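Why do we bother with a discrete structure alphabet at all? Because it lets us treat a fold like text: something you can write down, compare, and reason about line by line. To make this less abstract, here is a complete entry for DUF3422 domain-containing protein. Read it the way you would read a sentence in a foreign language you are learning: slowly, and without expecting to understand everything at once.
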Amino acid sequence: MTNTSDGKSGIAQTTSGRIKWEIHAEFVSLTYVIQWSGDYNAIPLREEIWIKLVNEMPGQRINSIEIVVGLAGTHDAKLMLGAETDTDVAVSAIGNCDAEIWSTFRFNEANATRFVLLNHNLNAFRTGRMARRLLEIEDYRLMALISLPLAQDTFTRCSVFETRLQTIVDALGKEAHQQERLLKDLAQLASEILDVSVNTGERFSATAAYSELVFARLAELREQHVDGYQRLGVFIERRFRPAIRFCAQASKRIENSATRVSRASDLLRTSVQVELEQQNLQLLESMERRVQVQTKLQEAVEGSQSSPSAITPSVSTRRFWKASAMLRRSPA
């Protein structure tokens, strides 16, 4: 076995072929290359060592692809494909019409998708490159579609989130005395939305990246139409692109839900702040009125204490006292 310097890929030779393994970011790919004798009954080609290796691999099997390479004019693509009818067969001329690709995109008895690469004028290098592109298209396509169930679940949860948010928003103007409870409800809702966003964000980003690779590899095939058949690229895009858009919409919807909750929280906080400011203003006005009353009382008290009439007798009173004193002395 030969390995690369980084230990992420390698090739092992068997008695009748070779096995290549490669570690990707999220999956491991195994490729088994074996010589075909030209016998249609010998398809698919499987050896015990390959079957054992695949069955003993840990993890979940995402995809299984068979690519059978034949010569145009020598081999029959339909017999190689095993298709009884060409109704659902997709065919494309690739590489300046130097080869053709045939497939039904259906799983066979071995739960594998079979492609037939019919060579017109490809050398060994270009044949290998075309086969690799087919493998990458299917690998990346199915890795991208892993997010589809997650997107469906996200849409369902977003509907629940939006219903709860609408209930809270409706209560903002009706339950002014329950603002603290509404703030707690919004905080809880924001926490749940953030949890969904964190758990789905990486997966949806990976889906977008894989889909770009699929479309890039399809463009590299330089497909041309074959009369009477649907192109492989058209077949893939009609079924693949809507799923990718759905995943993108799920990602966007959870972001929109988070934005709406944030706006509702800001609105409620603003309402609470305005109410607090109003209460503070009323408190200040009440304090000012009490100060004014106290000031008036203080002025009244100070005014009564400093008045001359309260301390010095009036002129008429002094005269009365003087006359009274004279009357009292006269009998003597």
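What the structure line is telling us, in plain words: The first strand starts at residue 2 and ends at 3. The helical segments are 48-56, 77-81, 124-144, 147-172, 179-221, 232-305, 315-329.
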